[in-house]
Amino acid sequence: MNAISPAPTPEGGPGRVVLLTTSHRVAPGLLSWPAWQLLHAADRVLCSDGAHPQLPYLREAGIPVEEASPSAQEIVGFCAGGRTVVVVATGEGEPRLTDGLARLAGTGRVDMPELELLPASYDLPGARLLDLVQVMDRIRAECPWSSRQTHEGLAKYGIEEAYELVEAIEAGDREELREELGDVLLQVVFHARIAEEHPQEPFSVDDVAGGIVDKLIHRHPHVFGEETADSPEEVKEHWLRTKAEEKRRSSVTEGVPLGQPGLALAAKLVSRARTAGLDVPLPAGQGIGYELLALAARAEAAGEDPEAALRAAARVYRDAVRSAEGAG
Fold first, then answer.
1. Could you tell me the pTM of the whole model?
2. For the chain, percent helix, then strand, then coil, each to nearest 5?
3. In sequence order, what are the residues at sequence separation of 6 or more whose Cβ sits closer than 8 angstroms to the Cβ of residue 281?
C-alpha cells in the first residue's frame, strides 16, 4: 500500500471528509449523479482497498484514486485549508477511520473537518434476494448436507414450512410471520439451485422469477394491458379467463392437487365447479366422508375456509384439554 504524506496546511478552514459508500448489489460504476460530481470536485480521493470494484470505473472516468489507509490525524491534515477528501469506503465502512476521528473530536483540541456520509448507490427493493441466492449457492457447494439434497428429499420440508406460515398468519404473530415467509422463500431458492444441476433440463432462480413475472403480467390485463376491472370479482374473472387460455384444460378439476388436506380438497373442487357454472349434486353416500364433503361444500358456499374453521375449533379444543390437565 502506498504511503501518503500529509498535505501542507493552508488557510481556509478545517475542510471536510466524505465517506462514499456503495452497494455490492449494484453493478460497479453505477453511481448517483451527486457522487460523480463530488468525486470530480474533490481535492483527494482515497481508498484503502486496491481491489475495490469501483476503482477501475473511477479511474476510467478520469478520477485519480490514491490507494491508502491514512490515520484520522493524517486525514485531518489533508483536509486543512478547506479541502475535501473523499474516502471510498470498503464493505466494512471504514470503522478504524471514523472511530479515530471521533476520538480526535472528543479531545476538543483539534479543529475537526466536517464528516459526511454519501451513499453513492442504493439497493433497489428486493436487493437482499441477491444475497440469498449467493448464500444458497455457496451452501450448496460446500455444505455436506445441503450438497446432497434432492427435490424429492426436500418436498416434506416445503409442506411443513407452508403449514408453519399458515399458523403464523392465523396467530397474528408479525415476527413469526416474517420468519416463516423467509423459510418458505428458502425452499424456493433451494429447489431452484438444485434445478440448475439437472443434466437435461436445468433452470435457475431467474427462470423461476421470470416465469412468474410473465404469468402475473398476463393475468392482470387490467393493470398491464387495456382491460378494465373495478371490483375484485372482475379481477377474478380476468384471472380465470387468462388462466384457462394458458392451461387449455379439458376439466375444471385439472390442477387441483389431490394430496392436499381433505377439507381443502373438497372445498376447492366445489369452488371450481361453481365458478365454471356447473350444477353438480354432491354424491349420496353413507359415512363420515360424505358428511364432511357436505360440510366443506356448505362452508365454501358461505365464503368460509373449512380448513381454517376446523383449525380454529381445534385450537379451542386444545386449550380446553390443557385447562382440564391443569385442573387435574
1. 0.70
2. 55, 5, 40
3. none
